Amino acid sequence: MENIRLIKSNLSGFVSKKELDDVAKPIRLIHDSLQKKQCPGCEYAGWLDLPSSFSSRLLRDIEATARRVRQEADVLLVLGIGGSYLGARATIDFLKPFFSEQRSDTKPLIYFAGQNLSADYLNDLLQVIKGKKVMVNVISKSGTTTETAVTFRIVRQYLDRIYGKKKAAEKIIATTDKSQGALRRLADEQGYKSFVIPDDIGGRFSVLTPVGLLPIAAAGINIRALLKGAADFERKGSKPDIKNNPAYAYAALRHVLYTKGKNIEILSAFHPSLHYVCEWWKQLFGESEGKDHKGVWPATANFTTDLHSLGQMIQDGRRNMFETFLTVKKESSLKVPAWKDNIDNLNYLAGKEVGFINSKAYEATAKAHFSGGVPNLTIEMPARTPYHLGQLFYFFERAVAMSGLLNGVNPFNQPGVEAYKKKMFKLLGKPRT
Ligand code: PA5
Hints:
binds 5-phosphoarabinonic acid; 2 domains; five-stranded parallel beta sheet; 10 strands; Rossmann fold; five-stranded mixed beta sheet
């Protein structure tokens, strides 16, 4: 099976061999402390060996629960936000067909909520589930996140009304802390089927725990292949040197570019299925690195779509950015037809694969942006499979841990997200507990 690849092609003049050699030394030291789980915040480094040590009992439980959801529900509502949302959304969007009609061929349809506070969104959701057999997976490690909790109240009221309290409880699956928080108390009191989010894994590193795996399995995706990809990459990601560990090579390159004033990274995806993978990446890197007034701003773009909007800014705007392209090598076959009259002058592409044209658009963009002063690298995924996405998830988790630690911050906490909550609670008149 082919592996994901880091291609370091458009960096010359921006990153030298000496600069990389210099950063390789601290990387070895940090690697040591990470492996021994002695780095700052390492009490949350449980994701490091999760893929290779995943409990087969838990895996069977997740699969059996997913089977029940697939048999009993037309719709699965997945309620969660941030790390309790993005991994499942990214995986399902990456691997399932694009259009809702194609997804509705196989039960259940998956709808996400709890990731915003919009009444319009929730009213539309309540409309769309009317008359359908509904199950709910509510996901919150703290069990107190406002967006998820408000949404769960509304959805629970709907279920109670439709099914009656007792039956409604059978339709709810809670994924939360093993012993703390309101959701755990509720799950135990009401007898919900529940899964535990491990103490030593933070939200944005939790895609390969029941947080991500249950909704992903309920969508009919092979979670064993996802875990296998991550486990295979775990072996690579456990190497201490940037020559043999592509995740550390990526961290090293980002670090050198950042220290030279490139403080924005654009993750530019050349496949529309990658949109939410980019959103997952944005949260992983933003929450992990943005501390102590430091960090690379994680921006994303969807190409070729955004070449017709952001492209101008990347080519010609302020030169404070670098770019990481995310590509998928193998696509399905579709050829451009020939036209007799050639009225659109496109016959030079007749017989060519659309995927081939997309690959040339990528190559051209990488070259153009480089010559415009935007250094870039590429992560190539061989194909749209759970196995390769598993590799990619682990690649980025390793890379961000190293990158944050290299920059002198704790990559595993997120003290900054509390500030808005405090002010919002004050405005809403939340009583002190
Ligand atoms: O990565 C994180 O820790 C956060 O994004 C959380 O996942 C997010 O805030 C949701 O938290 P919770 O799972 O406690 O509802």
